[in-house]
Amino acid sequence: MQDNDRCLRRLPSQIAGELRPKRPVEAVFLDRDGTLNVERADYVKSIEELVLLPGVLDALARLATFDLPLILITNQSAIGRGIVSHRRVERIHHHLRSLVHAAQGRIDAIYLCPHPPDAGCDCRKPKPGLLQAAANDWQLDLARCAFIGDSMADLGAARTAGCQPILVRTGRQAQQLDELAHRDPTVVLVNDLSAAVDWLEQWMKANSGEIALGAQAHSSSHTAR
Ligand SMILES: [Zn+2]
Q: For position 47, which CATH number holds?
């Protein structure tokens, strides 16, 4: 695999190397298409085609108050298929982060797989490569992380990496996930990102008496981009 196009990484310098205390939940990973924005069969190719799902900005603002790294983990095979350039996807992500930031939310880092499905890379979900790369960069214990996504690939990546998956019904695989959740009661499936944040909040409370609500006490130290 060529190292230079393996994945795009953004690591805020404020976080890198910073010693963070062990917490019951260390980070939240988020899928993009179908979780934050409307998934398009023909891919999101422009800022105009990035349409956020209802309630997403409010949910991200609430998530930001948990004072945890929020890391986007996304397959963008449209790059490898030659449909959209790296640079264009970066512009779309810059726009996404601007929208989120303006609504008091944040996305601290973005890890993406640019490869087509037949490339056999280690990073395309359901492979756990992006999650493992993020865990390495951010010094995270994946068993203490949650991954909010909308697809079987997200579920697969989360389970292989050892994260807690939280699935939402806002993507194209909602029916498939409903059937899976019916068969497997351990699958956490909720309506949308807002409900996923509710579930996460309860999970954090259940995992310890302490939930790190740092945003009120001090302005978040990792809003950098
Ligand atoms: Zn890849």
A: 3.40.50.1000
